[in-house]
């Protein structure tokens, strides 16, 4: 959402025609009367959705294609294909060589990027308003005409293998990948985005082109514009460049499986490595989807549990009850509560990092005791604090055309519509402490958990012992 523009009346001393000074009068700050920024959507004949938020004062725009296909749309044998394609997108098309593509972007001073998640693949560009047509032409070229040359595939294979090695050094990434793998065992959502190393080594051009054919279809794509690009102009560009997209692909077994709601499995995975000086532990229950009625209540509950980082100067005063206990007893280096949502499910939990490895049991105990407290003893004050933090976090995250485009694309791809920031504020404002306790009683109290732990974790209790803490009366 573009920032609301406020016009201050900075009145200066005015002089009348007869040279008489007019006394200075201080005016009140008043909002500039501009129409509210709205998200507009249009669906083309082939099913492609075009969505924009036009800001008449913006000098730049972000345009991009959000595709309802990520690693979840793969099979076990092709896991890693979506991410591999993202790498190959900028390596040349039938119209532009890699060098021409890079030079064209460089000459505009634009930024072209892409990323892959479990459920989406995104290609986007940020540029001056006058360069938007050229950016849309580049996007359609890389999406529809990528050459996928064998030489480029082999070069990127090595790049992705090195990237995989780097990811394996990031403990948080490793823990969360394992958390998905154990919570959604043997299901598409449980697979990693990069895929296993053997798949990266074996992926062929045929598998890459098949992924495009089966997933890059108009009914699964949203062209998004944010900033100074008018909706009608982007619709015209979409009609010009993307009218030839296939309307729909055959529903393969992989597609059908990707749309089936995954089963959450209470389980744990532990990788003990005493050369790692910390214990890194993620614990989660089954969370909520993007469109769930409890989506914002889950975020408020997450904010009540809060976050903690021992290295910060305000560590003793980070607001939540759990952070106070953790800091007082030196139980953790940091912790982060999270509510991760997908189209039909999610993970709600906490990620703990501690170098006090003899007190892991205390750390886990107090974290889960806080979860139990949410079911029956939540104060109005902490709910209001959590709501204020959540609203500020959401609104601050929409600072800039790229962030707004991301919000529009993700919401429309996953839920079919975009909630405007003011609507989100109203929903959050309406949440009460009773709603939070009701959510905790249904989603947390005595529920199965998934646990992922890496590092010096000898002191982590057994699954059954930790599971028993999910229904603690105190």
UniProtKB/TrEMBL annotation:
Q: Which GO terms describe its molecular function?
A: metal ion binding; metalloendopeptidase activity
Domain Peptidase M16 N-terminal, chain residue ranges per copy: 50-197
Task: Report the cofactors.
Answer: Zn(2+)
Give the top-rank taxon of the lineage listed in the UniProt record for this protein. Answer: Eukaryota
Annotated compartments: Mitochondrion
Which keywords does this chain's UniProt record carry?
Answer: Hydrolase, Metal-binding, Metalloprotease, Mitochondrion, Protease, Transit peptide, Zinc
Tell me where in this chain the Peptidase M16 C-terminal domain is found: 202-390
UniProt GO cellular component terms: mitochondrial matrix
- Pfam families recorded for this chain? Peptidase_M16, Peptidase_M16_C
Q: Which InterPro entries match?
A: Metalloenz_LuxS/M16, MPP/UQCRC_Complex, Pept_M16_N, Pept_M16_Zn_BS, Peptidase_M16_C
Write the Enzyme Commission number(s) for this entry: 3.4.24.64
- What catalytic activity does the UniProt entry give for this protein? Release of N-terminal transit peptides from precursor proteins imported into the mitochondrion, typically with Arg in position P2
Q: What class of enzyme is it?
A: hydrolase
Q: A biological process (GO) annotation for this entry? A: protein processing involved in protein targeting to mitochondrion
Primary role: Catalytic subunit of the essential mitochondrial processing protease (MPP), which cleaves the mitochondrial sequence off newly imported precursors proteins. Preferentially, cleaves after an arginine at position P2.
Q: By its UniProt entry, which PANTHER family does this protein fall under?
A: GH01077P (PTHR11851:SF149), METALLOPROTEASE (PTHR11851)
Q: Which family does it belong to?
A: Belongs to the peptidase M16 family.
Specify the protein name.
mitochondrial processing peptidase
The organism is Lasiosphaeria miniovina
């Amino acid at each position: 959402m573009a920032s609301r523009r406020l016009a201050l009346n900075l009145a200066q001393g005015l002089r009348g025609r007869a040279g008489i000074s007019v006394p200075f009068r201080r005016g009140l700050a008043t909002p500039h009367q501009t129409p509210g920024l709205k998200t507009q959507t249009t669906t083309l004949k082939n099913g492609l959705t075009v969505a924009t938020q036009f800001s008449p004062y913006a000098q730049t725009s972000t345009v991009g294609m959000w595709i309802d296909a990520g690693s979840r749309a793969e099979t076990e044998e092709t896991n890693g294909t979506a991410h591999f394609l993202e790498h190959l997108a900028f390596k040349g098309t039938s119209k532009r060589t890699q060098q021409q593509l890079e030079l064209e972007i460089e000459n505009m001073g634009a930024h072209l990027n892409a990323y892959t998640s479990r459920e989406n693949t995104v290609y986007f560009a940020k540029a001056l308003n006058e360069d938007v047509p050229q950016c849309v032409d580049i996007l359609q070229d890389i999406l529809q005409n990528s050459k996928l040359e064998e030489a480029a595939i082999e070069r990127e294979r090595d790049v992705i293998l090195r990237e995989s090695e780097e990811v394996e050094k990031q403990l948080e990434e490793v823990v969360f990948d394992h958390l998905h793998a154990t919570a959604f065992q043997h299901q598409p959502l449980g697979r990693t985005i990069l895929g296993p190393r053997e798949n990266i080594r074996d992926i062929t051009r045929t598998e890459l082109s098949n992924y495009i054919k089966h997933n890059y279809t108009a009914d699964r794509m949203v062209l998004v514009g944010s900033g100074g690009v008018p909706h009608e102009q982007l619709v015209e560009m979409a009609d010009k460049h993307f009218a030839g997209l296939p309307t729909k692909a055959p529903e393969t077994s992989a597609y059908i499986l990707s749309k089936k709601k995954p089963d959450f499995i209470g389980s744990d995975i532990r990788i003990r490595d005493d050369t790692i000086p910390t214990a890194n532990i993620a614990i989660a229950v089954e969370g909520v989807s993007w469109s769930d009625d409890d989506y914002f209540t889950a975020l408020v509950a997450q904010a009540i549990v809060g976050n903690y980082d021992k290295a910060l100067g305000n560590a003793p005063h980070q607001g939540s009850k759990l952070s106070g206990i953790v800091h007082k007893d030196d139980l953790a280096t940091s912790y982060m509560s999270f509510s991760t949502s997908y189209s039909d499910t999610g993970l709600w939990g906490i990620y703990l990092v501690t170098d006090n490895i003899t007190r892991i049991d205390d750390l886990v105990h107090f974290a889960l005791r806080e979860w139990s407290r949410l079911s029956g003893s939540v104060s109005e004050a902490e709910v209001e604090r959590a709501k204020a933090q959540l609203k500020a976090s959401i609104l601050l995250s929409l600072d800039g055309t790229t962030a707004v485009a991301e919000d529009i694309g993700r919401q429309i791809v996953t839920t079919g519509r975009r909630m405007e920031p003011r609507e989100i504020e109203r929903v959050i404002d309406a949440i009460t402490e009773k709603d939070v306790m009701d959510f905790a009683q249904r989603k947390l109290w005595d529920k199965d958990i998934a646990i992922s732990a890496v590092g010096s974790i000898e002191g982590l209790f057994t699954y059954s012992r930790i599971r028993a803490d999910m229904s603690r009366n105190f």
